[in-house]
Amino acid sequence: MTMSKPSRRGLLLAAPALLASPALLNAATRRDPITFTVLRSGTPIGTHSVEFVRGGEEPVVEIAIDMVVRFASIPLYRYTHRSREEWSGGLLQRLDARTDDNGTQTEVRARAGSGGLAIEGSGGAYVAPADTKPTSYWQEEMTRRTRLLHTQEGTLIDVASRQTGTEELTIAGNPVEIRVYEVTGELNTRLGYARTGEWVDLEFMARGSKIRYRRDRLSSPA
């Protein structure tokens, strides 16, 4: 059987499918990880990372926090947190989080459904509004919400956020203008986001000490 050569029209119709190969899509939607060094009263005690397993409009995000407070090399306090978020259309579809707060372990589970976001955690099991945002900080959108899902406890917390102005922050030797927010209520913290909306700063008090996040580097230009 003789096979005819593909027509120019056929090649043009096939082009979008060729361009949409997984490798090319991954390259187009890739987002650099967000990494911080965590400081307690100026001394490094750990790290916080936000890894985008998948980017684009339906991101999959993995979060890891590891902190140890020591005295003369003796560990006095340990904190670890692991969380995975799956998003679609700006809505949280799935969340699984595990936390070890100096020996106290908690788990949070959230699943999107027809009635909203079904949540299970230390606060029990309940259904929250579908557009509920978690306290994972990487989305500036959380500063526009008055209720948030606490990813350590699984409870809904009441907050109030206000933008206090702009500041210049130096990240890996580069000056960056950031929007600064003050969050109060059941969460008290200071947050900073670059003009792109990327999370770059965090500061709060814990057990009488100032905890400050230092962004390790800026993301590569898109």
Number of discrete helical segments: 2
Strand line-up in the sheet with most strands = 8-7-6-5-4-3-2-1-15-14-13-12-11-10-9
Question: What is the chains' assembly state?
Answer: single chain
Please give the alpha-carbon distance between the first and last residues. Answer: 48 Å
Query: Given the C-alpha coordinates, what overall shape results?
Result: globular
Give the number of domains: 1
Spans where pLDDT lies below 50 across 5 or more residues: 1-28
User: What amount of the residues lies in strands?
Assistant: over 45%
Helix content: under 10%
Got a strand count? 15
Radius of gyration: 21 Å
Major beta sheet, specifics? 15 strands, mixed
Mean pLDDT: 88
Overview of the molecule:
The protein has a 15-stranded mixed beta sheet with strand order 8-7-6-5-4-3-2-1-15-14-13-12-11-10-9, with no helix packed on it. β6 (104-113) and β7 form a beta hairpin. Mean pLDDT is 88; it is low at 1-28. By secondary structure, the protein is mostly beta strands. It is built from 2 helices and 15 strands. The chain is 9% helix and 59% strand. The protein has one domain (33-215).
